[in-house]
């Protein structure tokens, strides 16, 4: 069993993907070829925004978003510590300070009610993460941001395709950023990413920044980066769009089925009990990761591995417990993030996960939790 089954996806889409790649080889415009614009047009329409700018990766999208907003040394950007390092990294790279605000314990997304207390005269942006494929509480976040005149950047690397009050993730704030890393809900065959905005000036800035700040050839109007997405990778994403709506529907079904099958295990006594991610009623999740909370994670992971079920941990430490980010926060801050990092475990998830494999995952997890009790490592059920 694969953690993310990219092979089955390629098999299903082989004619489209091969033809898309061959077309690029035939025309030879490897940089900024016609597939780049074609993809941007398709994705802007899907996301319900005016502009899509493809870039070299999700990380680059976040970096370019901050640069387009003029974030600089000494500025503060509010974000979650319970995320992939890229979110905090791009803030620190610009000499700005990531200000970590804790998460909601049941969704693992930024707790919007804690943001206002973290705003200072140096705050320049709020960067929520739509973790595991579910959008953060964007209405509440946008409201706080508007009250303080701050832009909001959604890190939608794991949530592209998800909806919030019927609107698309990526199109819910000043700028939305996503990633086409192969294992993300919409992946390419290497690195790629995109940013989304309705703001003409920010879109223009992002387009210039991704090509070394050029407003015209060899006219460098601003400091930029080498941040374009390859034409070949755009061709791969275009081909994958052919089945993306089906994949999203499958991901939602598989997520709902996991929730249904695992629900009985949440009724076990605390020490053995499983926890599930809550999906709020006004949104859905595309399950960029299908993540659960488990006790004694090392033991459970080892048992699943022995049963042939691959798992992963997203993420074993909150950013403020990583050496590189320790200076930005006190060790005891963000207790919900610390608690989540100790318990989260992600299960196999992809649109091509079969019911048989999913049943095997659930059975292995039930057996592993059962074994914890028999071990005497945790009190037995009453
Ligand atoms: C994957 C990911 C990124 C970075 O995307 P890359 O394309 O790998 O650079 C950023 N933030 C989150 C939450 C991610 O999951």
UniProtKB/TrEMBL annotation:
<dbReference type="InterPro" id="IPR015421">
    <property type="entry name" value="PyrdxlP-dep_Trfase_major"/>
</dbReference>
<keyword id="KW-0032">Aminotransferase</keyword>
<dbReference type="InterPro" id="IPR015422">
    <property type="entry name" value="PyrdxlP-dep_Trfase_small"/>
</dbReference>
<feature type="active site" description="Proton acceptor">
    <location>
        <position position="184"/>
    </location>
</feature>
<dbReference type="GO" id="GO:0030170">
    <property type="term" value="F:pyridoxal phosphate binding"/>
</dbReference>
<dbReference type="GO" id="GO:0000271">
    <property type="term" value="P:polysaccharide biosynthetic process"/>
</dbReference>
<dbReference type="Pfam" id="PF01041">
    <property type="entry name" value="DegT_DnrJ_EryC1"/>
</dbReference>
<dbReference type="InterPro" id="IPR015424">
    <property type="entry name" value="PyrdxlP-dep_Trfase"/>
</dbReference>
<protein>
    <submittedName>
        <fullName>DegT/DnrJ/EryC1/StrS aminotransferase</fullName>
    </submittedName>
</protein>
<keyword id="KW-0663">Pyridoxal phosphate</keyword>
<keyword id="KW-0808">Transferase</keyword>
<feature type="modified residue" description="N6-(pyridoxal phosphate)lysine">
    <location>
        <position position="184"/>
    </location>
</feature>
<comment type="similarity">
    <text>Belongs to the DegT/DnrJ/EryC1 family.</text>
</comment>
<dbReference type="InterPro" id="IPR000653">
    <property type="entry name" value="DegT/StrS_aminotransferase"/>
</dbReference>
<dbReference type="GO" id="GO:0008483">
    <property type="term" value="F:transaminase activity"/>
</dbReference>
